[in-house]
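Give me structure tokens for this 263-residue protein.
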Amino acid sequence: MKPQGIVELYNEWMEWPLIMAYYQHSGFLNAGYWYPDTQDQVEACHNLVDRLLDFLPARQGHILDVACGNGATTNRLQAHYPPSAITGINISPRQLNRCQNNASECQFALMDATHLGFPPNSFDAIICVEAAFHFNTRQQFLGEAQRILKPGGFLLLADIIYGPSNGQESFIVPTPNLVDNVEAYYAAFLDTGFHQVTVVDATTECWHRYTQNLSQWLLAKWFLGELNSQDKQKITHNPFTMNVQFWHYLLVAAQKHDPSKTG
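Here you go.
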């Protein structure tokens, strides 16, 4: 599917009343990070943002939220940064309109993640939650992130490596973004010039716990007769949580080299 098709799909899902209810009208739409005592999906989504920020030695300077969705991640960043230090970008005007409600004091721009309209050395950190596998291509985005990060800056990702082709990659992820294994994924960051790279497999804490919780929630709705025929149709044909096979859900921190810190 072309990028615009993915945008339209997300627009539809973000406005689906059932999904909005599951995410408690928070604007989130991701798996989140589930600790043993995590109570619900919104808490898990907050955890995911905080878990990624834990990779940073200090939460300072300016941060860019790439593919910021409805601005829920951007809003969570305000727990760690002043709004004036936060910028979000997206390629969906509809989603950006909702961003203005979720994080009204932050800055937002309509922009493609693979063609970032910022000068070199603009940001101290970049965060991107569950979007890089959609980009055409991820490698192009990594190059752009490397360019606009300040020396010593960090790129933080929640990303997914999908498994063998099952006819889904043209819909979910461009073929060039398919990666054979975690080692090859790691190497792509080094090839782009990142200095220090940490890759953590969080498949259990993120995807498995998310799908368990969502399935239980939907099953309860089903038994209570609270799902209409359209809901059931969408759930049955859900490419994100029911049918897609993938290898790993990864948390990544990649640091840009700082020549002043060598020697």
